[in-house]
Structures are given as structure tokens and as C-alpha cells.
Amino acid sequence: MISAAATQRAVSAVAPRVHRAVQHRAAPTHIPAPHRGLSRSSVVAKASEDDIMEQLMAMLGGGKKGAMVAEDKALPGRQQAMKVTNKHYVLGNPIQEPFPDNLETCVFATGCFWGTEKMFWRVPGVYSTSVGYCAGYTQNPTYEEVCSGQTGHTEAVQVAWDPTVVSFADLLSMHWTCHDPTQGMRQGNDAGTQYRSGIYCSTKAQHELAKKSAEVYGAALKAAGRDRDITSEINGPGYNCVYYFAEDYHQQYLAKPGARPYCSAQPTGVPVPEEFLKENDAKLSAGYWKKYGPRPGCTIQVSNEPVPVEEALNA
Q: Nearest 5°: phi and psi at 262?
């Protein structure tokens, strides 16, 4: 139990960060009028004192935002799927299946999906990315419903890639290094079940390698002096891996005119061990991750353009 005095000290320490996050996550100006005020920053744009306290308590590991909704209490949703533009804003390829037969897919969650998507679309060999909602109970949820915590979903990115150019081990490396996977139901200033970390696999082989990578990366974090355990969900095919597209204005958001460069990811700076990558057919070298990989702090202060294959292989 946290004492009243300890809570007050924590609130005093964290409150300035919450207010800064609130100001930074104002509604993007390019979002159509019906969505303004209901964007990613709506929690803070209209926050009452109770809302802010709930956010603070979630950062401290408690409060409603850190509790998963029960399946029988989740919102019902709807049968109508979200309408999205079926062309990637950066890569130019379709974002909806069916994809070419030679591609593989997986869904990754590392907190705010804006920055997650950008980090993945830059990887050479990635054919397409999209943002959406995964691992919840509500059918075809909206952003506002997901933010309410009453759908059980996490913000996620579906990645389609060519395995002859980039391997699943490479993508796992991006997943682990572009956020802090030990933060539970939050990532940085973003608190709530919709910001939990996860990997939602499309094949049994992916599932096995993802679990192994978590063991390896967890050990690497401990060796680097980080004592918290990895909290990422790792689900196999058929186990609550249903992916629903997010609203069109969220797709490739950070590459669009008027985008606000918000990012609350907390990369640790700890690399995935090179031995694991080599053992599992990684095609990107340690030089690639040193030059193009995520840095501690914000992940998005890089070009929107994908890294050219030649440059990646020569890094």
C-alpha cells in the first residue's frame, strides 16, 4: 500500500511531466474536424483533476488505467470494419491483405503506435505497415473506445515483410530496442492498457522465436543493470491475435503534413545480443543497428524514408 505522504511526493515529482505531455499531445491540425478533440491527446486536452490523478496513479503502477477489462465487461463494438486508404503513405504498397504470397506478417506493440509504425516502415525489406488495435475483445473498436480502457486492445502495428531481405529475428530486434518492454501497462508518459507491449504472431515458428528472443533480451537487460522483468505479451496464432485497423488519420501519421512529432517511447539503449541474431538468420548487422537503430529517448527524430537495402547491408 502506498502511503498518502509517498503518493503526494510522487505526484509532485511526476505532475510536471504529465502537464508537458498534455501540452505536447494536442490534437493534430490535419485530422478532420469530427475527430478534433478526440485524438490521441484527448485524455489531457479535456482532463479533469481526476483524470490527471488517474494518469499519475497509472504511472505509479496502480489505478484503473493499469487494469485489463474483463471480456464480459468489454464494449460490444460493431460488425462494420474501419475504412482506410489502402495505400501506404510512404512505401506506396497496399496496407490491407491479401499481400503477395512470399511475404510474412506479424503484429507488434511498443506503446504509441505512431512511432512504432515509423520505426518498422524504415526497415529494408518491409513491404507495408499499418496501425491498429490488437489483443482485445471489442469488435472493430474506435480509437476513443480503445482509449477508454474498455476494449482490452493495445495500440499495435501490423508489419508485412519479404523474408529474403529481412528476417523475423531482425524485426524482433527492432521490437525490443525501440521501447522499454518492462513497463507493464504504460510506455513513458503514456499510461493505460492500450500502451502495453506485445508480439502477436501469425505462425507457430514466429511464436517460438519470439518467446526465445524475450528470454535472451531479458537476460541482456539484466546484464546491463536493469532489474525489471519483461512484461510483453507474446501470443501465438489463434490466441487473441485479431487485428483491427485504426482510423485512417492514424495511418503513417508521422509522415503526413501537419503531424505533431509526439513520441513517448523509452528505448533502453541495450542491443539484442548479436549471437542470437546470427543464430536466427538475421540479415542486418550490428553496424546497421548502431547506425540506424533506435536511440535512448525518442525514436522518431529520423528520416521518414526507408533505409535503402544497399546502405543497410554495407553498414
A: -85, 135
